[in-house]
Amino acid sequence: MRHLDRATLDRQLDELQAQLPQLIAETEPEHLMDAFAGIADEILERASPEDCRHVDARINCMLHEAGLVPGDDGEPCDDA
Questions:
Q1: Measured distance CA(67)–CA(20) in Å, rounded
Q2: How far apart are CA 24 and CA 67, in angstroms?
Q3: What angle do CA 49, 21, 5 make, to 5 degrees?
Q4: pTM of the entire structure?
Q5: Per-residue pLDDT tens for 25-43?
Q6: CA atoms of 57 and 78, how far apart (whole Å)
Q7: Domain containing residue 21
Q8: Nearest to residue 78, comparing CAs of 53, 60, 61, 56?
Q9: 18 vs 1, 15, 24, 54, 79, CA distance in Å?
Q10: Total count of domains within the chain
Q11: Quick check: is 58 in a domain?
Q12: Is residue 36 part of a domain?
C-alpha cells in the first residue's frame, strides 16, 4: 500500500475533524467510537511509519477535544 504524504494526511484529518460533530449527532453513543475508529483507522493505515505518531496524536486530540476520551489539558493538541 502506498503511503500518503503529510499534507494529504492532514487534509483527511481536517475533514474527519469537521465531520465529527455530525458523526456524534447521528450515531448512537454505544457505536460512536467504532464508527470514528473505522474512519480514523483508514487514515492511519495510509500513514508512513514516520507519520504514524503525528496522525495518532491528531486523532487523540480530536477525541479529547470532543469530550469522547479523557486527556491531559496540557497536551499540545494545537501543535500535533
A1: 11
A2: 11
A3: 25
A4: 0.87
A5: 999 999 999 999 999 999 9
A6: 10
A7: 6-71
A8: 61
A9: 26, 5, 11, 18, 18
A10: 1
A11: yes
A12: yes
